[in-house]
């Protein structure tokens, strides 16, 4: 499983050289003379780039219960912060290799947040690398690293140049990785998928897909050998990134839906089953462990189901997109015993209007809730403008309000953050 967080890149020289060498090999192939291109077949190299400047103002208020002699006394604290930054948010280099009428290969190389290996800024990752076999419209097989179909946005979340957003809906946005573990809500990777589309008359298609992949990222072995899930023989270990679990803990999922031929209408339901690795305690609020007398009794792994629904509809210049996700861990007595609730939900609704052919305005609302031992709720109110200068360049502006409320044992926390984004997307 590729970690999608904005993480530090290893500063070890060999790893850096391998990363840079891979990029130069790809770019070198793109510059091969025409004779060599004919020998190798046609490579299609393209990509997307999105950069912005954003301004942020934060307000936080904490209402705490201070222990008194015979009662709890309340006190309120508050603070504020302001910051601004320029950033290359994300650049993707896509490489498509048509092999014949039935086979093609695809690679997505992704650079995030001012990537610089010398400075340990941002991250570089291979997000997709797969081979596709197209037997017919009704039946296809895709093998290799890939985004699985789950709701509408999951497969296209990194195609930033074709999205109107600078800041994506909450659980799809990498900039919010410190607040949302994307994989808790959505499946991040699959490795084998069968899928297709069946005509329903002249106006509709029935889409279907089924897939499987590795267990969630926290199970995967780390190159330094500190994996959370230990195999029987600790001396028998591969390089980091391999999954040491059995097939029981792997990801299984699928999506079925309908869409119109002109794609002005699309609706579907999605499903996954895997395991939530509760040994990874970074996902659990710290205040729970202050209260818990038996932390070890909770740690383990819980079977988990994700359910999703998506709906898109366009009528003339007006169109909307909606998504819902519900995460339901089940059959885990240790959590039931201590009153720990792992359920999550996410809801997003966006309304778009084309003022002109190249100018779109939109507004959206997203909300996520989880309980654990306390109630947490996150809300995002969003308004934006996207102007398509031409088929390659889009200028974007976005105003966003992020609200977070929680009720830990010691009181109440409220945070509000105001963002202003101005940026552009480029199809490379």
In short:
It is built from 6 helices and 16 strands. It is mostly beta strands.
Key descriptive features of the protein:
about 425 residues; mainly beta; Porin; 6 helices
Secondary-structure arrangement, i.e. CATH architecture: Beta Barrel
Poorly predicted runs: 1-40, 68-72, 225-229
For the sheet with most strands, the description reads: 16 strands, antiparallel, barrel
Overall pLDDT metric: 82
Instruction: Please tally the β strands and state the result.
Output: 16
Q: What's the CATH superfamily, by name?
A: Porin
Query: For the largest beta sheet, what order do the strands appear in spatially?
Result: 1-2-3-4-5-6-7-8-9-10-11-12-13-14-15-16
Strand content: over 45%
Describe this structure in words.
The chain has a 16-stranded antiparallel beta barrel with strand order 1-2-3-4-5-6-7-8-9-10-11-12-13-14-15-16. The protein has 428 residues and is mainly beta. The radius of gyration is 23 Å and the shape is globular. The protein has helices spanning 13-30, 34-40, 182-185, 286-291, 295-298, 333-338; strands at residues 44-67, 72-98, 103-116, 121-134, 140-146, 190-200, 204-213, 251-260, 265-277, 301-315, 318-329, 341-356, 359-372, 376-388, 393-406, 411-427. The chain has six helices and 16 strands.
